Amino acid sequence: MSGTRLILLGAPGVGKGTQAKRLEEFFHLAHISTGDMLRDALREGTPLGLEAKSFMENGELVPDDVIINLVKERLQKEDCKEGFILDGFPRTVMQAEKLDELLEGMTQVIDAVVSIQVSNDEIVERLSKRLVCNACGYVVMPGDGLELGDGCNKCSGEIIRRKDDEPDSIRRRLEVYEEKTSSLIRYYEGRGLLQVVDGVGSMDDIFQRTVETLGLSLEPV
Ligand code: ADP
Ligand code: ZN
Fold first, then answer.
1. Residues with catalytic annotation?
2. Suppose 24 and one of 31, 40, 130, 144 were both cysteines; which one would form an S-S bond, judging by CB atoms 3.0 to 4.6 Å apart?
3. Which CATH class is domain 4-29+82-213?
């Protein structure tokens, strides 16, 4: 399965990050999450983090040129040679066009775009309950028994609610998705790359659906 290059599309809270991590583990693809990269920068207090902070906390998009430079550097790393999964990028038509240019320069193409779909009501419900580790980004799962303020099971971090998972930010992120990102569905449909996956169900079910939709095999080789 070397050389597979995927984009995961979908509103915040549809489970892109979870599915991307599974695809990463199973198929050994590099997982490129611009949200995670920005949160790392924020935690480390780098200039990028400082620049992104207020946009992220308010549920707005970080400016295209900042994100494009970030992804450009990331795609040049060794681990991307065997394929990658883009999670949270592109988010605007401008970013998608720049990505096409970047890949063309690297003689690479996107193989498939998976759009994970979940209703807005379900998204608001999920995000307003979501808890994460402030250090490693681990997303708390129902069986974990972890509550706000607890210590993370994976590292020494604290379990928190992301600032952008407060109700006002969630609403704004959904609006921004409608305004700026949803048109990418047509963009990739027009290129014959779009696959739609229903994002309601267990994480295992959705992984199964995604893998089937992509025509990949879960059988060990
Ligand atoms: P979610 O999908 O849950 O909204 P992400 O972790 O992908 O969260 O992104 C969190 C925030 O990081 C976004 O709301 C935005 O401010 C910023 N961000 C991430 N990726 C991009 C991008 N490609 N373009 C602009 N901003 C981005
Ligand atoms: Zn942690």
1. 16, 91, 130, 162, 173
2. 31
3. alpha beta
